[in-house]
Design brief:
The complex is a heterodimer of chains A (295) and B (284). Chain A is mainly α and 295 residues long. Chain A has two domains: 40 residues; 205 residues, MetI-like fold (Orthogonal Bundle), CATH 1.10.3720.10. Chain A is built from twelve helices and no strands. The radius of gyration of chain A is 28 Å and the shape is extended. The termini of chain A are far apart. Chain B has 284 residues and is mainly α. Classes of the chains: A mainly alpha (295), B mainly alpha (284). At the A-B interface, helix 1, helix 2, helix 3, helix 5 and helix 6 of A face helix 3, helix 4, helix 5, helix 6 and helix 7 of B.
Amino acid sequence: MRAAVPEFPEAKLRELADHYAAAVAAKRRRFWLGAAVMVAAVLVAGWMGDVDLWKFSENFWRFPTYFVSIAPKLSFSSLWADLSEWLWGLPRWTRLLGDTLLIAYVGTLAGGLCGFVLCFLASANLVRSRAIVFVTRRTLEFCRTVPEIVFALIFVLAFGLGPLPGVLAIAIHTAGALGKQFAEVVENIDSKPVEGVAASGGSWLQIVRFGALPQVLSNFVSYALLRFEINVRGAAVMGFVGAGGIGQDLIEAVRKFYFTDVSAILLLIVVTVMLIDFVTERVRHRLLGMEGAGR
Amino acid sequence: MNSFRFDNQASVAERHPHLFRPDWWQRVKITAGFAAVVGLFIFGIVQLDIPFHRLSDGMSRLGGFLRLMVPPDPGSLSQAVIYLHALGETVAIAFLGTLGGALLALPVALLAARNVVANRVVHILSRRSLDTIRGIDTLIWALIWVGIVGLGPFAGILALVCSDFGSFGKLFSEAIEAADKKPGEGVLAAGGNHLHGVRFGVLPQVIPILLSQVLYYFESNTRSATIIGIVGAGGIGLQLAEQIRVLEWQRVSFLILLILITVSTIDWISGKLRFAIIGRREIA
């Protein structure tokens, strides 16, 4: 048995089809409009940015050539001697890498502590005064918007060459970045423990300590570890402006065309960064897992 | 604070003694962790040989710089025009760098996503090379490109393209792997081939997420683009580094102010756009 499918009257069908066509056309129009704006933006930006495709295509061969020329000359018959010649500065570079890691660590911890203190003041759910919240937030914003290498440039003039300006620059930037992330965590906490401590007569410090802190600590540590990862990369280039670490040797090697040194230092930096990423990711997953189990 | 007691505390304590006993193991663990963190901090300060005697001196010098910075002043009108042009260059570098990195990263991200290319070797190789590229900082890329295409903003664009290529490749492939399998399976079941499945099953799901990630990176690249001028790759960083070196503090503060305004404007715009694209969703 076959039931007839009821058909729309012709007029209704036409109306629906028109609507569909209009919707499709509108979408298409929007797409082409967006594409046109995009192309215009690319052209303007290309003009602004001195993009010279001719020069680029003419010189592009230098890019792979550069990597070939910085590659170490290793031959199988004298592998060990070649390796030790390539990594001739290994003791010095390891020490500088260690310095870089320590700059990142000390900067992260110092900045993290500042951010930790400031984040509670920037949380609207813990602080009544709008003024304090506003001022703290703007301060944090300033600290994280000015790039750390700009701070480093200025600090090098004030404190002299060496790791101190690097540590300070990273600390300030970290305070801004972590302060904001911490404050966001604090604003999302469950308000009941806070109210509980307040209701039983706790002072503001006790509210923060017993009401807020236990809820946010694991998230804080996780964010701080992530920031440490970022700061290791940042500390690796601090030496470009004379603020300590491996960057000093790298920029010297690049500028003076010590080709194999460039590849050796780059390799060491990449390996270190990957190692740090791997370790911190492990720790962070464990922390987040612990938090999940606790809930 | 008064110590707090409740009525039947004795009986509760009797039934659950472990809740009232100090947990020594836990305390030892916490103390040890704390000691390690603080110890490494002190070791770092000693090892880096941080000269504390220079701290107070430097602070007073820094205060002097700050006093010299107000009011921010570009010097002259022609100077201000140069700075504004440099600012435009910076935004152009960020824009083209982000765009180029995203366009290059998309095909590689498809290769690196396990649900698109099931080959383990391809997956691992593409992931590791993306990690390597990501491990090199934007400033280092800028340094390399300056040596290839010469000083100027073009080197900055190429530097951002390279470093974004690594980050986008990773983010995109993770987003693609997190996509829902069912639409793709539906396309396969309706007789499409694997490519159809990717094009009509996976891409429509992930494109909005990818777009919002690109916008987010545009924000952060504006920050990066302000500094790559320090190694000669164009943009406002070149002017900034120059003015810091010649101690023209009023111009420095003017430039920093310009950067702050630009970055927050772009934050605001791209925040709006991101909201329009995916709503208030978390970016992985």
